[in-house]
Specification:
The complex is a heterodimer of chains A (about 400) and B (about 425). With about 400 residues, chain A is of the alpha/beta class. Chain A is built from 13 helices and 17 strands. Chain A has a domain of about 180 residues: Thiamin diphosphate (ThDP)-binding fold, Pyr/PP domains (Rossmann fold), CATH 3.40.50. In chain A, the strands form 4 sheets. In chain A, strands 6-5-7-8-10-9-15 form a 7-stranded mixed beta sheet, sandwiched between helices. Chain B has about 425 residues and is of the alpha/beta class. Chain B has 14 helices and 7 strands. In chain B, helix 3 packs across helix 4 and helix 7 packs parallel to helix 8. The chains are: A alpha/beta (about 400), B alpha/beta (about 425). Chain A: Its cofactor is thiamine diphosphate.
Chain lengths: ~400, ~425
């Protein structure tokens, strides 16, 4: 187990602003239409040691929007400010309050409060059975969650690190994914499997995995990736309420993002993408942490006269082809930026989906920027070259828009 | 050592018939010495975990309880019958159903009515019947790939199981599961798990639900028990050990039933397992471990009563090793060339159905005629199941994608902005996904 709590430092935006309605029209009651988000700033390098060396490159402050920013004081705004892990916790707690069959199981989720504190304090409030500390036996406690889900509970299974869920692959694939079907629809598996993944800060190869590429071809499973405190809470609640098994991807470097979220209850749609920044010239599709690299690049691109449209696809399976398609029809150019592996990754599937559905609207071949096909190296420099950096995004957009 | 002499077969476990191994097998205790249904009245002295906080103490007593099983039974047996006539007839009918159903499956397989891997239960009926006939409808059963008979014992109709095997829409899983994936929500059959060991965590989860309902949801009357069946091969798999640990740790209402038929396809149990006495692994995890003659439905039933009772009373899990034998190959595709004919003959002579029949007749519980009536009835049930399955419709194309997601919104939103599942033709798989 590697604990990097606090490695990512979040700075609240020095300038907050009301964005225009950045969200798509609401197709379903679950979706959000009225959110006025203040953008968050993540500075993904919190380490004093590396600061001088890396700060410039790694600051990913997502302030490049078209909306005028105003220096309104945050204090007078409605809502409350939370870090991303607190937003996940708030969503979890609300659902546990609402429905007594909702329970949590995993390694160190109870007394320890979760390796990233997502379940902090919940064991005290709900007891050891509802917030169950399990032995280190991923395949078995995941299977136990599935058995509990089949017999009336709504468990949330936490992988202490997403990579550990490779040990539960059999249960996730055979039973989570297939059992509803093979049982002829008799048994439902309303389970949520969640945990921290992605390339963190020099965690080494095994703790830096992006499992979405492995899980995406399992039938019967939905996958979502959260990227802001707002959507983290909304997706957590939606995943818990879904009758389908849902895998919720969190990113180790995003837990300390800060954002003001509404006081009133809301739930996000599991199937909808999120418009981050409307634009005209090029569609940039991204998710999870890469959203911030994209937004950093977008700032540069705006200064260079480009007007990129940024969409956080959020739903990794299935894709929201409506939002994506509308954007492609408008910009005719697509850049995909992901942290997933290049071979067989989410970007590859997305490229295929766009080519199949919207090829006639494309004026240029799709460019897909992914992580290098390499076991994530430990050394900081090598690790940095493994994942896509903002400068590469700028270059790719320039190339696409030639 | 040579194992060709008939006396060696009195040894329950260390049968090694394939080679002239020089290695001396450790002799196990011999539950077959009393080759009859004698003496199953003895109440197993299960140790109640709640009564003792001293781990060493309860472990020791758990082991003692096991070794007592065989010896102490003799004394009391002749005075009391183990079952009533009604119980005997119920057990007999269930075992005969299991046998006749499986024999019919073999016929239908060779006639091309069913395909794939079909694993038959012949020979092991005493285990399924001995345990499952003691369960309530609300109790759950998790099985393996050899699951037809567990489903039948639990109450799923022969029609629904046969139809599933025929791949028809009227099957218990609409033809979507097949031989190795039998489910019934109504009867709480949780599957039907084709990979070794994966059903054990699911069963553990069902047992967790029972505890959760009682303690968190305050459903005081929820005393539901889960029984997990699996084989000797599974007992070398991590999920077995992991779940023994969790079930004992949280005192879950579950019974782990090992159907040790001595062979994991072609791998002899003693060639695969450092200590072939599986029941011993129970005490190692703080739960009673029991060895029972799995060819004797009455002995199985006695052990099952205790184990299920413990679970129902909230006293925690039990590991039961039933020593049994399959009369056919691993599956219908298995040429079954490795097992020694003498070994097969030994167990064939211990056929659990014949043994129960003899016990009931010897004790004047039933007449030959009454049993014949049951056999005839079961023949008709199985014939009817085949007819029903044969005449049932194949699944229509519209069924193809119906059960991929419980909430079909999981198929997502199409380019037109509507959920794909709103397309009426969607479930046929012809709409572009």
């Amino acid at each position: 187990m590697a604990t990097i709590v606090g490695a990512a430092t979040a700075l609240s935006a020095s300038k907050s602003f009301n964005s225009r309605k950045l969200h798509l029209r609401s197709r379903r009651s679950l979706s959000v239409s009225e959110r006025k988000g203040s953008f968050l700033v993540v500075r993904s390098d919190g380490s004093v040691v590396h600061k001088a060396h890396r700060a410039q490159k790694l600051i990913a402050n997502a302030v490049a929007t078209k909306a005028d920013s105003s220096a309104a004081s945050t204090a007078s705004k409605p809502g409350h400010e939370l870090l991303l892990f607190e937003a996940l916790r708030e969503g979890l707690e609300e659902e546990m309050d609402r429905d007594p069959t909702v329970c949590v199981m995993g390694e160190d989720v109870g007394h320890y409060g979760g390796s990233y504190k997502v379940t902090k304090g919940l064991a005290t409030k709900y007891g050891d059975l509802r917030v169950l500390d399990t032995p280190i036996a991923e395949n078995s406690f995941t299977g136990m969650g599935i058995g509990a889900a089949m017999t009336g509970l709504r468990p949330i299974v936490e992988g202490m690190n997403m990579g550990f869920l490779l040990l539960a692959f059999n249960q996730i694939s055979n039973n989570c994914g297939m059992l509803h079907y093979t049982s002829g629809g008799q048994f439902k598996i309303p389970i949520v499997i969640r945990g921290p993944g992605g390339v963190g800060r020099q965690l080494g190869a095994e703790h830096s995995q992006r499992l979405e590429s492995y899980f995406q071809s399992i039938p019967g499973i939905q996958m979502v990736a959260c990227s802001t405190p707002y959507n983290a809470k909304g997706l957590m609640k939606a995943a818990i309420r879904s009758e389908n098994p849902v895998i919720l991807f969190e990113h180790v470097l995003l837990y300390n993002l800060k954002e003001r979220i509404p006081d009133e209850e809301y739930v996000c749609s599991l199937e909808e993408a999120e418009m981050v920044r409307p634009g005209e010239h090029v569609t940039i599709l991204t998710y999870s942490r890469m959203r911030y690299h994209v937004m950093q690049a977008a700032k540069t691109l705006v200064n260079k006269g480009y007007d990129p449209e940024v969409i956080d696809i959020r739903s990794l399976k299935p894709f929201d082809l409506h939002t994506i398609g509308n954007s492609v029809k408008k910009t005719h150019r697509v850049l995909i930026v992901e942290e997933c592996m290049r071979t067989g990754g989410i970007g590859a599937s997305l490229t295929a989906a766009i080519t199949e559905n919207f090829n006639d609207y494309l004026d240029a071949p799709i460019i897909c920027l992914s992580s290098q096909d390499v076991p994530t190296p430990y050394a900081g420099t090598l690790e940095e070259w493994t994942v896509v950096q903002p400068a590469q995004i700028v270059t790719a957009v320039e190339q696409l828009c030639q | 050592m040579s194992l060709t002499t008939s006396t060696k077969f009195a040894q329950p476990l260390p049968l090694n018939t394939t080679s002239s191994r020089s290695k001396e097998h450790k002799l196990l205790f011999d539950p077959f010495r009393t080759n009859s249904f004698l003496g199953s009245t003895h109440k197993l002295r299960f140790n109640s975990l709640s009564k003792s906080n001293q781990i060493n103490l309860h472990r020791r007593s758990a082991i003692v309880a096991v070794s007592d099983v065989v010896k102490e039974k003799k004394a009391k047996s002749s005075t009391n019958l183990l079952i009533t006539k009604e119980e005997g007839l119920e057990l007999y009918e269930d075992m005969v159903l299991g046998r006749a159903f499986e024999d019919m499956c073999a016929q239908m397989y060779y006639r091309g009515k069913m395909f794939g891997f079909v694993h038959l239960y012949n020979g092991q009926e005493a285990v399924s019947t001995g345990f499952i006939k003691l369960l309530k409808q609300e109790d759950s059963v998790a099985s393996t790939y050899r699951d037809h008979v567990h489903s039948l014992s639990k109450g799923v109709s022969a029609r629904a199981v046969m139809s599933e095997l025929f791949g028809k829409a009227t099957g218990c899983c609409r033809g979507q599961g097949g031989s190795m994936h039998m489910f019934s929500k109504e009867h709480n059959v949780l599957g039907g798990f084709a990979f070794i060991g994966e059903g054990i965590p699911v069963a553990t989860g069902a047992a967790f639900s029972s505890k959760y309902r009682r303690e968190v949801l305050k459903e005081a009357d929820c005393d539901h028990v889960t029984v997990a069946f699996f084989g000797d091969g599974t007992c070398n798999n991590g999920q077995f050990f992991e779940c023994l640990n969790m079930a004992a740790l949280w005192k879950l209402p579950i019974v782990f039933v090992v159907e040790n038929n001595l062979w994991a396809i072609g791998m002899s149990h003693v060639r695969a397992t450092s200590d072939p006495e599986i029941w011993k692994k129970g005490p190692a995890f703080g739960m009673p471990g029991v060895h029972v003659d799995g060819m004797d439905v009455l002995k199985v039933r006695e052990v099952a009563k205790e184990a299920i009772g413990r679970a129902r009373r909230g006293e925690g899990p039990t590991l039961v090793e039933c020593e049994t034998y399959r009369f056919r190959g691993h599956s219908l595709a298995d040429p079954d060339e490795l097992r020694d004919p003498a070994e097969k003959a030994h167990y064939a002579a211990r056929d659990p159905i014949t043994a129960l029949k003899r016990y009931m007749i010897d004790n004047n519980l039933v007449t030959e005629q009454e049993l014949k009536t049951i056999e005839k009835k079961i023949d008709e049930v199985v014939e009817d199941a085949v007819e029903f399955a044969d005449e049932s419709p194949h699944p229509p194309r519209s069924q193809l994608l119906e059960n991929v997601f419980a909430d079909p919104k999981g198929f997502g939103i199409g380019p037109d902005g509507r959920y794909r599942c709103e397309d009426p033709k969607f479930t046929q798989g012809t709409a572009h996904v």
